[in-house]
Design a protein that fits this description.
Length: 491
């Protein structure tokens, strides 16, 4: 006769206990998760785990759930959910083009003003369409200045290299009320086997950005191609210079890398001048910051994508710059420029109104690209549970990466039964790994899952996190989960 093992008996006994008694008993980590953590060299004291089936009174699993931990990019869940509720899924950002002076024929005897509305995704294409619309309205020659009104967001001191000593990486770009094309230039590295040379092509090809190419084409495997390239950056009031030296393997084929090496005003002015000339326009004035005067007239407008579309980019691809733009937008509406402190207060007040007390919560920029942001797995789980009952739940869940399908989860769990059954936001920093989202189990029940690791070996945590996701998907929730739902009157 087959005898049930100890774990099976323990689970059966727990299901017979009242819910209050169950809540008082510690729940051990699933064996597969504990084993993966041990193999990764990560102690249980460095983690927080929280699993709560939707509709149940008590969590299924809670280990270190009260610990204040760095969530990395999983913090974007808080920012995007707050944005969807406070601003609304249909919210859009507007970038206005205005003029003063007189328009005689196709000559503007006055200034052109660009008033930023904080658009998180004013791409090169959308900026070009805005300028094309100005040309279509009959403006060709601008005899005044280009004035950039960026007052909607406060100009807070920011060192782009402070976070990870990578000041030219676009993800370190500081927010701006007039953020154009993420302030990025994408370089295409194109090897030519016949001539044994390597070309570097920039998009956009700004004249103010000089590129010095001293790369040598080499043989051998591609490997870590970036590690073999040395990049020197120089900037001044007129532009910037990128110098490349080292080797580039022919085996790499074509690769690309984006850089951010110019200031917001410098970049926007350079891009405007280039595109305006390409459109047949003429401009010889100065580019400066300033306020739109009361007598200025609207000459064009660029509307952003809706917020429900923006949050998909923020969460699925973990776009830090867009998250920071959205975060600051939560502090708009007053007579003073939006600050990160005001945005943080807005989020905390919103959580308090929902009855979510999170005294450990620390918000620096709302993107998770931070060494000081903190939240517990229990409270991030509470946010996800609350979101399930929100009117914006469909938009939020649709923005999360789907396991083995898209976003930052597209390469994970492909051969597992959970493929396509979990919407999970990931987070990754040096010493930090996290996952947070929703898992649909084999019985058709959905659970909130949050797992954070803050440890020097966090980079080895993925097997443990994947094991937890699989455990939630495959576990038998018909016992305790059903009992809890019956006690709370939920089906």
């Amino acid at each position: 006769m087959h005898l049930p093992d100890f774990r099976t008996l323990l689970v059966a006994l727990l299901c017979l206990l009242p819910v209050t008694a169950q809540a008082q008993l510690p729940t051990p980590l699933p064996e597969a998760v504990s084993r993966a953590l041990a193999q990764a060299g990560i102690p249980e004291a460095a983690i927080g785990v929280y699993v709560h089936e939707i509709g149940a009174e008590q969590p299924v699993l809670s280990v270190g759930a009260e610990r204040s931990l760095n969530p990395a990019s999983s913090m974007k869940i808080v920012t995007t959910y707050a944005g969807l509720e406070l601003l609304g899924p249909a919210y859009v950002w507007n970038t206005d083009a205005l003029i003063d002076g007189t328009l005689q024929g196709d000559v503007l005897n006055g200034n052109l003003y660009l008033r930023g509305g904080g658009d998180p995704k004013l791409t090169l294409e959308n900026f070009w369409l805005l300028l094309r619309n100005l040309r279509a309205r009959g403006i060709r020659e601008i005899r005044g200045d280009l004035v950039l009104d960026r007052r909607l967001f406060a100009e807070e001191a920011a060192d782009p290299g402070q976070f990870d000593d990578q000041p030219t990486r676009p993800y370190n770009t500081a927010p701006s009320a007039l953020l154009v094309n993420f302030k990025a230039v994408t370089l295409q590295f194109i090897p030519d086997a016949a001539t044994r040379t390597l070309r570097i092509v920039a998009e956009p090809a700004l004249p103010q950005l000089q590129i010095s190419n001293n790369l040598k084409l080499t043989d051998g495997a591609c490997g870590d191609w970036l590690a073999r390239i040395k990049v020197d950056t120089q900037g001044n009031a007129d532009g910037a210079r990128l110098s490349f030296s080292g080797g580039y393997a022919l085996d790499c084929g074509e690769r690309q890398r984006s850089f951010s090496v110019m200031g917001h005003r410098q970049y926007t002015g350079a891009l405007f001048a280039m595109l305006w000339r390409e459109l047949g326009g003429s401009f010889s004035g100065q580019v400066r910051d300033g306020a739109v005067p009361d007598n200025a007239r609207v000459a064009g407008n660029a509307r952003s994508l809706s917020l429900s579309e923006i949050v998909r980019d923020v969460n699925k691809y973990s776009n830090n710059v867009m998250a920071r733009q959205l975060f600051l937008s939560l502090a708009q509406g007053g007579n003073t420029p939006a600050t990160t402190a005001a945005a943080g207060n807005a989020v905390k007040q919103w959580l308090a109104l929902k009855g979510i007390s999170a005294p450990e919560l620390v918000l620096e920029n709302g993107s998770g690209l931070s060494r000081i942001e903190r939240i517990s797995t229990r409270n991030l789980g509470a946010v996800l549970l609350n979101a399930w009952g929100s009117a914006v739940m469909p938009e939020l869940i649709a923005s999360l990466p789907v396991a083995a399908v898209d976003g930052t989860m597209r390469r994970r769990l492909k051969s597992s039964e959970i493929a396509g059954q979990a919407h999970i936001k990931t987070g990754s920093l040096t010493g930090v790994r996290s996952i947070a989202g929703y898992v649909l189990d084999a019985q058709g029940n959905r659970s909130v899952v949050v797992f954070m690791v803050n440890h020097g070996n966090a980079h080895n945590a993925q097997p443990a996190m994947d094991a937890l996701l699989q455990w939630v998907h495959n576990r038998d929730s018909n016992c305790c989960g059903r009992q809890q739902r019956m006690r709370t009157g939920k089906k």
